[in-house]
Amino acid sequence: MDSLGSRIKTLRLEAKLNKAALARKVGVSDVTISYWESGAIKQIGHERLVALAQALGCPLSRLIEGSASRRPAPLYLRSAPPSPWQQPSAGSIEVPFELVPDQQWEGDCYLLTPAPGEKFDFIAAGDLVAVAPTEVFRQPGTYLIEMEGQHFVRRVSQNDAGELRFEGEGSTEATAYTASTRLLGKLVARWQVSMI
C-alpha cells in the first residue's frame, strides 16, 4: 500500500502544482508540504486533509485511500437494517493510522456515508465515516447502534455501575441500554464536508 505522503506528491504532480502553489492553497508552508510528502510528518489533521483534497481537486477518499481502482466505494448508511457491510458487494478499507492516531482498531473497517434523504446525529450529508463492526463495547465513543429496529448514531459511554448510556447530538440526557438496543459498529474516523 502506498503511503499518504507519496499519494500527496502524486496528486500534486497530477494537478500540475509545485509545492509552493499547493502550500498557498492549503494555508501551510512549502516546507510543510515537503515534510508531508516525505513522511517526516505522519499526522495530518482532518481539516488540513479536507483542504488538501480541495486544493488537489480530488475526492477526500482518493487522498486517504489511494487509487480509485483499488478502493471500495462508500456504502450508504440507512436508518433501516441490515448494516451496510452486510451487502454482498461491501469491501472493507484500511484506515491509515497516521490519520487517526488515537484509534488502534483491529479488524475490518467500512467507509460509510448517509444515503440520500437519511439523517443521522454526528454525520451530515456528504460526510464519510470509517466504521469498525463490533457488538462489544471497548471504549467510549461514537457508535452505530440498532434500537427498536432502526439504525442510529449515538455517543456511547459507561456509567460507574457498568451500564451503557447512549446520547444523541445536542442531547442533555442519555438513554439507558434496553433489550432492543445493540451495538453494530464504532466510528473510528470521520471526514466532514462542512469543515471548510
TrEMBL record:
Highest taxon of source: Bacteria
HTH cro/C1-type domain mapped to chain residues: 8-63
Gene3D superfamilies according to UniProt: lambda repressor-like DNA-binding domains (1.10.260.40)
MF GO annotations: DNA binding
Record-linked InterPro entries: Cro/C1-type_HTH, Lambda_DNA-bd_dom_sf
Originating organism: Halomonas urumqiensis
Species lineage: Bacteria, Pseudomonadati, Pseudomonadota, Gammaproteobacteria, Oceanospirillales
UniProt protein name: Transcriptional regulator
